[in-house]
Amino acid sequence: MSVVYLDNNATTRVDPGVVQAMLPFLTDQFGNPSSAHGLGTLAGAALRNARRQLQALIGAESDDEITFTSGGTESDNAAILSALEVIPDRTEIVTSVVEHPAVLTLCAHLERTRRVKVHRIPVDRHGRLDIEAYRATLTPNVAIVSIMWANNETGTIFPVAKLAELAKEVGALFHTDAVQAVGKLPMNLKSTAIDMLSLSSHKFHGPKGVGALFVKRGVPFHSLIKGGHQERDRRAGTENTPGIVGLGRAAELALKFMDAETTRIKWLRDRLENGVLQRVPNSFVNGDPLERLPNTLNIAFERIEGDGILHLLDRMGIACSSGPACTSGYPEPSHVLRAMNIAHGAVRFSFSRDNDQDDVDRVLEVLPAIVDKLREPLSSAPEGRSAEDRQCGPGLSAGSTGDHS
Ligand code: PLP
Predict the structure, then answer these.
(1) CATH of domain 16-255
(2) Which keywords appear in this protein's UniProt record, sorted alphabetically (predicted)?
(3) Catalytic positions, please?
(4) In terms of C-beta density within 10 A (0-12 exposed, 13-18 middle, 19 or more buried), how is residue 132 classed?
(5) In the predicted model, is pLDDT for residue 334 greater than 90?
(6) Confidence of residue 22 (pLDDT cuts 50, 70, 90)
């Protein structure tokens, strides 16, 4: 049975063209890009090429605004820690409640270990940022704002260009975790006030363990990793040449396919969304109905545990990620759905250019019966909580994906 892979926000298949581009750098062209001899020069040229390919994808003004890293997590850490070093007289960070743990865990750590105050901006039940609460936190004490471009669980897109302009008004740096947005949404960073942006190659058909941090020209930056002079002193350590070459090629392909593929992927996503809503009663979509990644469908099912659906789908050869229900005794709810006051088991289907209509039809074929099988009758609610409580629609307690991808 071939697998229907609908977990592309977790990771994507490496494109065969990317593998081809990487192969020489895993075999004959093994030079260290810092070496002065021919093999080193070849590797150095490959890095420059990858930097330009990525520059084109994100619309950066210059390729020297790009520093290669080990991925999204490192880039997020590097951006926030740099801001606290370069603006030492400011001790506040503004972020949102629905960020990836790469940001939230670091912020919690900084709160515990340094004299740093963290403001976490809430979201509404569609996952939309509370802009008034955001404005209210912006003062000259803020060193950095770190707010994601698009949410990994629901696909909700935040208005980062506008948020960056507001941050500038108080002289704060603006960083965005764009790990889920790069390669899926068109970008032209040179026309925005965004100072720093994190991205990760494995989310757009590149290899794992490689990513980049964009730092706008003129923005002061202190390296997280100390050592040699690689990456113009911004990230010490011998560069992962094959990975970076793969990232560059993946960026080139993402840009080439973006227009046509976005339309096609959104059509597939909408077909699945409408099909599920029609076939499965008491199901609803989590996330902003309009401002949402074209590839993401997070769908909740009343009176059901997301994990159960996930396991049965997996048995039927369908890979996606899950959201357990809110009720006590079930797995911990995700911070994202909890912040949105969503309390039902949820499943995230995320598409890529590898998917087609057969994938959607396969899910529609098996999902209604799975939900039917798992759905608890209203009368089987656990003692102490009414059946209605356990349905916990928006406005009650929480549900989860537990998946931080
Ligand atoms: N930020 C977001 C929004 C993500 O979805 C992920 C991926 O899981 C990360 C950060 C971490 O990226 P990486 O896996 O490259 O460290």
Answers:
(1) 3.40.640.10
(2) Iron, Iron-sulfur, Metal-binding, Nitrogen fixation, Pyridoxal phosphate, Transferase
(3) 326
(4) exposed
(5) no
(6) very high
pLDDT at 342: 87
User: Model-level pTM?
Assistant: 0.92
Distance between CA 135 and CA 132 in Å, rounded?
A: 5
136: left (phi over 0), alpha (psi -120 to 50) or beta: alpha
- DSSP, res 271: H
User: Could you tell me which of 26, 27, 31, 51 has the C-alpha nearest to residue 41?
Assistant: 31
* pLDDT for 96: 98
C-alpha closest to that of 173 among 202, 193, 200, 153? 193
Any ligand 1 atom below 6 A from CB of 321? no
Identical fold, 16-255 and 259-392 = no
Residue of 146, 202, 203 to mutate, ligand 1, most atoms within 8 A of C-beta? 203
The radius of gyration computed from the CA coordinates of the chain, to the nearest angstrom, equals: 22
Locate the ligand 1 atom nearest the alpha carbon of residue 151 and give its number: 3
**Residue indicated by tokens 């009414």:** 386
Query: What is the pLDDT confidence band of residue 308, given thresholds at 50, 70 and 90?
Result: confident
Which amino acid is it at 283?
S
Candidate from 40-44, 231-235, 300-304 with smallest mean pLDDT = 300-304
Classify residue 217 as exposed, middle or buried by CB count within 10 Å of its CB (0-12, 13-18, 19+): exposed
C-beta separation of 317 from 365 below 8 A: no
Q: Which contiguous run of DSSP H or E holds residue 120?
A: strand 117-121
Domain segments of the chain: what residues? 16-255, 259-392
Question: Is the CATH number 3.90.1150.10 carried by domain 259-392?
Answer: yes
The verdict on the CB of residue 18 being under 6 Å from ligand 1 is no
> Which residues, in sequence order, are bridge partners of residue 7?
350
Is the confidence at residue 386, as pLDDT, over 90? no
